[in-house]
Specification:
This protein is of the alpha+beta class and 186 residues long. It has helices at 34-50, 109-119, 123-134, 154-159, 168-185; strands spanning 4-8, 14-18, 21-26, 64-67, 73-76, 85-86.
Length: 186
């Protein structure tokens, strides 16, 4: 049996957490303008869901949305109704504006394994960072100037003793060294 944990969030919103599920509802209208209020409510709740604002929700759970017959917006990560749909724009890959390259990390697997073990960091963590940060593209550069497989900023790379952050092996070594530092510190 699920135990409901409900409470107000703001003056006109209600939040209910049902073991591993978050069910949220926004009012259909208000005196300050129905459209704006509904958008603000949905955006706030979506941010809560996607940021894992409650320990009952896993970061990997995806938020879904349903607008009922009264215009009330319901958001959940565990839909009980087949009419729930994904949040528009909640995922770049889902909305198809973000396309990750189909590169395989197999050519860097040996370096990742060796350097990770040498510095005591999980090879799976390192591979996940490389996949997320650069999609295994050693020439990737972010809009802010981070570069290489593990997206090292120039000053960070220099501080880590990485002479060429676009050299895959040097970038991995510097990135893993930085991860080791962060794991030890936090």
């Amino acid at each position: 049996m699920h135990r409901n944990l409900c409470g107000p969030i703001g003056t006109m919103h209600r939040l209910c957490a049902v073991r591993r599920a978050i069910i949220l509802a926004c009012p259909a209208s208000s005196s300050s303008g129905a459209g704006g209020m509904r958008r603000r409510c949905a955006a706030s709740i979506a941010a809560l869901l996607l940021a894992g604002g409650t320990p009952a929700v896993s970061a990997s759970d995806s938020a879904l949305r349903l607008v009922d017959g009264d215009g009330v917006v319901h958001l959940t990560n565990v839909p009980a109704d087949p009419r729930y749909r994904g949040l528009p724009g909640a995922s770049g890959t889902g909305a198809e504006w973000l396309r990750l390259p189909t590169r395989s990390g197999t050519q860097y697997a040996a370096d990742i394994q060796e350097i990770s073990r040498e510095l005591g960091v999980s090879p799976s963590l390192v591979e996940a960072v490389v996949r997320t940060e650069s999609g295994f593209d050693p020439t990737a550069v972010s809009p802010k100037g981070a570069g290489g497989l593990m997206q090292l900023m120039p000053k960070t790379a220099a501080a880590l003793g990485v002479p060429d952050r676009f050299d895959p092996r040097e970038n991995i070594r510097g990135g893993v060294r930085h991860l080791r530092y962060l794991l030890d510190r936090y």
